[in-house]
């Protein structure tokens, strides 16, 4: 399974129409603006289709994209928790929420929360907890 970083201005297909991501919501909801009608809708991540960043051969695409481990063996609940944590850490790092609010939202204590913050990388997206 290929992974795409969800971020504003990414062109996707939503409900069968070309659209631009305007906002990544907590959980699996994505706000998009349909290109033709300019209508803003919220869709589930499962309803999006992703386009390559430029028209190239599939061989060139695999050379450009780093391979990310397949997440087929990871429970949807784990992916959802990771996405929510990513969103909370992003808000915490930008100063939109306090440490106490972030710890409450992620159901962690201070040490565990800072361990998550240390692993946080906005270019990678949400990381799924290891299954040890």
From TrEMBL:
MF term (GO), any: protein serine/threonine kinase activity
Sorted UniProt keywords: Kinase, Serine/threonine-protein kinase, Transferase
Protein's name in the database: Serine/threonine protein kinase
Source species of the chain: Pseudomonas syringae pv. actinidiae
């Amino acid at each position: 399974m290929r992974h795409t970083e969800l971020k504003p201005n990414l062109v996707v297909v939503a409900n069968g129409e070309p659209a631009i991501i305007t906002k990544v919501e907590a959980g699996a909801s994505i706000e998009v603006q349909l290109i033709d009608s300019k209508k803003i809708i919220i869709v589930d991540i499962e309803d999006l289709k992703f386009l390559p960043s430029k028209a190239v051969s599939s061989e060139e695409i695999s050379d450009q994209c780093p391979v990310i481990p397949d997440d087929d063996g990871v429970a949807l609940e784990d992916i959802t928790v990771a996405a929510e944590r990513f969103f909370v850490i992003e808000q915490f790092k930008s100063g939109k929420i306090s440490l106490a609010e972030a710890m409450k939202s992620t159901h962690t204590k201070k040490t565990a929360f800072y361990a998550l913050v240390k692993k946080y990388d906005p270019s990678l997206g949400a990381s799924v907890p290891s299954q040890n």
